[in-house]
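hiii so um. not sure if this is the right channel but i have a protein structure encoded as tokens and i wanna go backwards to a sequence. like what aa goes where. can anyone help
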């Protein structure tokens, strides 16, 4: 089982290992959350010979990449400027 909490409202969740890495909505505040990988899943990804170099980078920096993607999803849209 994976235990985690919503970053916004701190509601606690416990889900099956099969949800690792998947996006879910918080039932309380509707924030998009990514279920964290288990330590075993991170370990298995690193040592899987079928992964290419970019996948190894992704597995080693998974938490950072997920945080950046979350910020990008939550960022307000930029207004387009007209060019004269």
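sure thing!! here u go:
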């Amino acid at each position: 089982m994976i235990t985690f909490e919503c970053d916004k409202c701190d509601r606690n969740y416990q889900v099956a290992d099969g949800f690792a890495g998947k996006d879910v909505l918080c039932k309380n505040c509707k924030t998009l959350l990514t279920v964290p990988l288990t330590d075993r899943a991170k370990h298995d990804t690193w040592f899987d010979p079928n992964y290419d170099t970019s996948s190894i980078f992704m597995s080693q920096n998974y938490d950072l990449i997920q945080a950046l993607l979350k910020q990008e999803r939550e960022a307000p849209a930029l207004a387009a400027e007209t060019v004269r």
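oh and The CA atoms of residues 28 and 47 lie 37 Å apart.
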